[in-house]
Amino acid sequence: MILVTGGAGFIGANFVLDWIAHEGTPAVNLDKLTYAGNLANLASLQGDARHIFVKGDINDRALVAGLLKQHQPRAIVHFAAESHVDRSIHGPGEFVQTNVVGTFSLLEEARAYWSGLAETEKAKFRFLHVSTDEVYGSLGDSDPAFSETTPYAPNSPYAASKAGSDHLVRAWHHTYGLPVITTNCSNNYGPLQFPEKLIPLMILNALAGKPLPVYGDGKNVRDWLYVGDHCAGIRAALARGKPGETYNIGGNSEKTNLEVVHAVCAILDELHPAGAPHAKLITFVEDRAGHDWRYAINAEKIKRELGWEPTKTFAAGLRETVQWYLSNAEWIRNVTSGDYRKWVDLNYGKR
Ligand code: NAD
Ligand code: DAU
Fold first, then answer.
1. Ligand 2, closest atom to CA 292?
2. Beta carbons of 176 and 218 less than 8 angstroms apart
3. Fewer Cβ close by (within 10 Å): the C or N end of the chain?
4. Residues 37, 54 contacting (CB under 8 angstroms)
5. What is the DSSP letter of 255?
6. Contact of 187 with 218, CB cutoff 8 Å
7. At residue 7, what are phi and psi to the nearest 5 degrees?
8. % of the chain at pLDDT higher than 90
């Protein structure tokens, strides 16, 4: 049994599905179901006793303590977070509450539970903290990629809240001996991603014939990793990672935002042709405040020590992703409700 937090969100849901498919052992899934959490992501597990869903907040200490006592998990895999940089610019409070205070709450309950385990269970227990490359800040065009020893320099409220959570996780190992592992991953894409993030937003806008809002000059660079590869990396870190260590996970796939948007448009031109090329919808809009220029990951450590590396090329993963959105109109209808439209007005209305 493992306890997953945030398992109704994009990566968490992909992970729960992947875990049950690969490991076949049960997972308790604690998720608050914020705007980003969606039980439809887990519809294929309905009636499967290996998935136990619990709606709740990681800050609800009594709930977390009760779940740990009842299910006696051998690991906690912690995804729950506010995850969107633009939302953190409009309203940073929730980011501190969930990402920093929530991780603190979870660490404290994990520590209490772990302290009471028998020695053999104690040695096997893991707290796996899922984090981001954004904690390292921003790179120039010719800087070397982020490694596990790159100093932290978070720039957005989101990145700062994740950096804070990483520091807490580190300290709970150093001070209390809690067997933690942290993974810092680059930009994920794939099925089930909420359409506030670049790739699904561009797919949905293009399908609706709406402008494709590219921030600034579109030359910022991100390293893209297919979500299934990220899930495999987390499973490797859980199985073979060393307590107290951090592992960078990346796709070896740096692209400018414009390259990504043009690639989405080219796939749509082929699979879902409109009267004119979709790229005609590209519109340059006001830049994101404090926009990080470039992220790149050196993922040599996890390859060398745990035998993990990405398996899917960006071209193949992006095509599958576009195909998934084309085949899941009902899912799209459900997530693009009134609240979503309010977000679009707030973030893009004045750009
Ligand atoms: P997401 O926003 O899609 O999902 C977050 C999930 O957490 C949602 O299901 C939400 O309901 C849940 N949640 C939020 N606050 C909660 C709380 N207080 N208690 C319980 N549940 C809560 O996020 P995602 O993109 O799937 O990211 C998951 C994790 O991976 C995050 O920690 C994020 O920082 C990290 N990460 C994301 C990426 C990426 O590209 N998306 C890359 C690297 C790391
Ligand atoms: O690097 C890992 C991080 O990647 C994760 O920790 C975050 O949770 C995840 O949201 C993601 O952060 P980014 O800010 O890089 O992702 P986003 O999809 O929001 O934006 C990707 C790039 O595209 C970024 O340079 C901003 C740009 N962009 C984004 C949006 C939403 C646009 O040009 N237009 C847009 O409308």
1. 25
2. no
3. C
4. no
5. E
6. no
7. -80, 5
8. 99
Please tell me the distance from the alpha carbon of residue 138 to that of residue 160, in angstroms, as a whole number.
13
How many angstroms separate the alpha carbon of residue 274 from the centre of ligand 1?
34
* Shortest-distance atom of ligand 2 to CA 196: 31
What confidence score (pLDDT) does residue 195 get?
98
Q: Which residue has the tokens 């937090």?
A: 5
CATH superfamily of 2-189+225-251+291-311: NAD(P)-binding Rossmann-like Domain (3.40.50.720)
What is the number of other CB atoms lying within 10 angstroms of the CB of residue 334?
12
**Residue corresponding to tokens 């590396």:** 309
CA 207/CA 184 separation, integer angstroms: 32
Ligand of minimum distance to the alpha carbon of 347: 2
Q: Which residue has the tokens 């050196």?
A: 298
pLDDT digits (tens, 9 = 90+) for 27-86: 999 999 999 999 999 999 999 999 999 999 999 999 999 999 999 999 999 999 999 999
Cut 0.90: pTM above it: yes
Q: What is the pLDDT of residue 125?
A: 98
pLDDT digits (tens, 9 = 90+) for 110-139: 999 999 999 999 999 999 999 999 999 999
* pLDDT of 55: 98
Q: Mutate which of 98, 146, 215, 348 to test ligand 2's pocket (most atoms within 8 Å of Cβ)? A: 215
